[in-house]
Amino acid sequence: MLLVFLTFTGCKTMTNTIENNKNSLANLLVKVQDQASRNADYLAPLKDLQKTTTDTGKPQIVVEQSGGVPTQFFDINDVSFGQIASHADIETRTARRLQARYPAEFDGLLNAIWRDSSDTRMLRTRVRVAPSDDTGFEENGGNTGGMVRAFVSDKFKTFDNVNLLEAALPQLMDNPAAFQVVNADVTDKRLYLRLKSLVQTGTGAALNDLMANGIGLQNSEVGAGSVSVYQIAWTLACLNGMQTQNKTRSSHITSARDTDDWGLLSDQAKDADNHALELKIRDLVGVYSSRDAFDQVIEQMKAAAADVIDGFAIDKTAVVGGLGKVMQLTKKETSSVLDGLLDTIGQAGYEQGRPLSRATLINAVTAVSHKADTDDVDLWQQRGGQLLNMKPADWQRVAAIAA
C-alpha cells in the first residue's frame, strides 16, 4: 500500500529525486493516504435509499439499516449531486434550483423515482473519523456517516489514486529523464500529477524558447474521467504546459474493466486486472519519457514557428478572435487567450517585433492554464496540443480571419 511506499522512501529521498521545493509530492501522498483510509463503498438498491434535506438546506442520502449496519446519513457533495440528477434524467442546473427553492418537493420527486427503480448504485463515500474532522460534513442527530463523493453504477470499476501512484512513482523516481514535480493536486473530481525533465530539453521555436519534456498523470475515483498517462511539453520561460498527441491517442488505458462482465469477476480476478493496468501505466511512463518522443514535439514546434501571420501592425485582437472561432471557444475563453498572448509577448526575453506564429499562439493558449480552475488546467493544456496539431487548412482560416 501507499503507506508502505511512503515509509520506505521517506520525504528526504523524494526531495533528492523528484520532489520540488514546495513539497508538492509529499503533501499529495499524505492527502491521498488519508483519504484512502477514510473511503468506503456501499452497494445499495435505490429502493433502500432516501433523499432528504437538513434544516439548513444541505442535501443528504439516508441509507436504511441493513445487515446489522445502522441507518446512516451521508451529505451529498457537488459531484455526487450532479450524478444523482443525471441518473434521474434531470438537468443539473435545474436540479440545483429545485434543491435550493423547493427542497421538500425535490426530495419527494427523487424518492418516488428511486422507489420505482430496480437499479443498484455504488455509493463511494468518505467517512468522518472525529467530531473535530474539518470536512464540512453536517451533523444529523449524531448519525452523519460522512459524505457521498460519487453516485455511480454498481458495475463501476474501481482503480483508485493509491493504485495509480503505486504504479507510476517507482518508474518516475528511477528514470533517466530526471523528473521533477511541477504541481500535484487532488480535487473532488480528479488527481493530477505533472512533472518536467531536468535533462531532456531543447529549443522549440526561437532562441529563447527552451522546452523540457514532461509527464502527466490523472485519475478519477468518482467517474469524472479515466486513468490517464500523457506527455507534456513545457515552455520553461513561462512554465506553460502543452499536452501532446501522446495524450489524445493513448490517454484512456483500456483493459477487461471495460466489459459488462466486471461485476461477475472474483476479487482475485479484479486484482489481477488492476495489476495489468498498473503495468500498462508503468510502460507508458517509460515510452512518453523517451528522448525520441520529446524530439518529435520539438520538430513540431519548429514547424509551428514557421507558420507566421504576415503583415505589419497585426491586430492581435483579430488574430485571437479568428483563433477562437476556429477552435470554437466562448467569448470569455477567447478573451482569456488574448490575455495569455499579451502575457507571452510581454515576458522577459521575448523578441519584440517577431511576427505572430502558431507557436506563439500555442503559448498564449497554454498560458490560460495558470489562471484556470484546477479541474480546467488539463483542458487548456490539451487545447495547446490541439493547436500544435491543427490542420493546415484550419490554420489558414485563422490567418485569413486575422488578415
Q: In words, what does this structure look like?
A:
- This protein has 403 residues and is an alpha+beta fold.
- It folds into three domains: 2-35 and 159-297, no CATH class; 39-153, Beta Barrel (OB fold (Dihydrolipoamide Acetyltransferase, E2P)); 300-402, no CATH class.
- Helix content is 44%, strand content 21%.
- The protein has helices spanning 2-17, 24-38, 78-87, 92-101, 103-115, 161-173, 245-248, 267-288, 291-306, 316-326, 331-346, 358-367, 377-388, 392-402; strands at 39-45, 49-53, 59-63, 72-76, 120-127, 144-153, 179-186, 191-203, 210-219, 228-235, 240-243.
- The protein has a six-stranded mixed beta sheet.
- Helix 1 (2-17) packs antiparallel against helix 2 (24-38), helix 1 packs parallel to helix 6 and helix 12 packs antiparallel against helix 13.
- It is globular.
- The model is unreliable at 7-12, 131-143 and 247-256 (pLDDT under 50).
Give the DSSP E fraction (strand runs of 2 or more residues).
Answer: 15-25%
How would you describe the shape? globular
Helix content: 40-55%
- Count of individual beta strands: 11
Poorly predicted sequence stretches spanning 5 or more consecutive residues: 7-12, 131-143, 247-256
Structure class: alpha+beta
**Euclidean distance between termini CA atoms:** 58 Å
SSE pattern, N- to C-terminal: HHEEEEHHHEEHEEEEEHHHHHHHH
Q: Provide the number of structural domains.
A: 3
Rounded Rg: 24 Å
Largest pleated sheet? 6 strands, mixed
**What is the count of DSSP helices, taking H or I runs of 4+ residues?**
14
Mean pLDDT: 85
Biggest sheet, strands in spatial order? Answer: 1-5-6-4-3-2
